[in-house]
Design a protein that fits this description.
The complex is a heterodimer of chains A (167) and B (136). By secondary structure, chain A is mainly α. Chain A is 89% helix and 0% strand. The longest helix of chain B has 26 residues. Classes of the chains: A mainly alpha (167), B mainly alpha (136).
Chain lengths: 167, 136
């Protein structure tokens, strides 16, 4: 417990110490411009979340789940595909949660008055930056599962051809 | 024969009077109590729905919120929602149909490397340390 508190205190000091007086002054002076950029990013990321989310959702529910069900209803082995689909759905849930956390952090950063509180604004911004990187990692993981599912379908087809004896 | 509990007559009379007064008040202000009750229930339901709206992540998908009006008309509505049927035979043709549909959708999904880059970098937001950027 003490170690956690000490490390949190150290992190807070380190992040505050990273800022020079000149940087703090620049944040205060450019506060309006910075906030305008953040507002634009906030809106464009929301749009990206909606558009990407639709595609990722439909990949899972309308294609992967349906194909798995069809194989299952024909008594064919769909274990490998179901496993990839489960991992994909878990990654999708993580993406949704991480995006929500990021959006809330960015909104909180925008609410901070950077002209009077440049240090806390900077800390909050760094926090949002880390959370955005996490969302990007989630997106890459989803892309990886989309590829994995496709190769598992290929494996299934090879096996299916071998069992049914078709060319 | 059972013993009857001894209840003071004055206490019983006071309780009866209070009960009568309360009933009288309730009868007299029935409409007012109905309005207050309705308002309390409405406020409680609004609070519960707002909590659900924020916690469930629906707020993040709602582009009608203030600040998102500039992008709300840019939502991609062209995304086709072609389903692959969960029922039917499995053979080379049906699997081929699936893979064609899947490849097309996968291409769309991976076309954008969403949330890449580092737009929250102090250097990009133009308040980074100039000495650091000079060294890089």
């Amino acid at each position: 417990m003490t170690a956690v508190l000490l490390s949190a205190f150290h992190f807070y000091n380190a992040s505050a110490a990273d800022l020079t007086d000149e940087q703090l002054a620049r944040i205060s002076a450019n506060c309006l411009t910075i906030k305008s950029s953040l507002n634009q990013l906030h809106a464009s990321d929301a749009l990206l979340r909606v558009n990407r989310g639709q595609i990722y959702e439909s990949m899972g529910t309308k294609l992967m789940d349906s194909f798995n069900s069809r194989l299952g209803s024909n008594s064919l082995d769909n274990k490998g595909l179901t496993a990839v689909t489960d991992s994909y759905q878990t990654a999708l849930t993580t993406f949704r949660n991480d995006y929500r956390t990021y959006e809330q952090q960015l909104a909180a950063t925008i609410r901070i008055d950077c002209s009077t509180q440049p240090a806390s604004f900077h800390d909050s911004l760094e926090n949002a930056r880390t959370k955005r990187e996490k969302v990007h990692t989630d997106v890459l993981r989803l892309h990886q599962y989309i590829d994995d599912y496709r190769s598992t379908v290929n494996d299934f087809m090879l096996n299916f051809d071998r069992v049914t004896g078709s060319n | 024969m059972e013993e009857q509990p001894i209840v003071p007559t004055v206490a019983v009379a006071t309780a009866a009077t209070t009960d009568r007064k309360f009933r009288g008040f309730r009868e007299e202000h029935r409409f007012l109590l109905l309005i207050i009750g309705t308002i309390i229930i409405a406020i409680t339901l609004v609070i519960v729905s707002l909590v659900i709206y924020n916690v469930s992540g629906s707020a993040q998908l709602d582009l009608s919120r203030p600040g998102y009006t500039s992008v709300s008309n840019k939502v991609d509505r062209s995304t086709e929602t072609t389903d692959y049927s969960s029922f039917g035979a499995v053979n080379k043709t049906t699997v081929k149909e699936f893979t064609t549909l899947y490849d097309e959708r996968a291409k769309k999904a991976k076309a954008v490397d969403a949330f890449n880059g580092d737009p929250l970098n102090p250097e990009i937001l133009e308040f980074g340390d100039p000495t650091t950027s000079a060294e890089q």
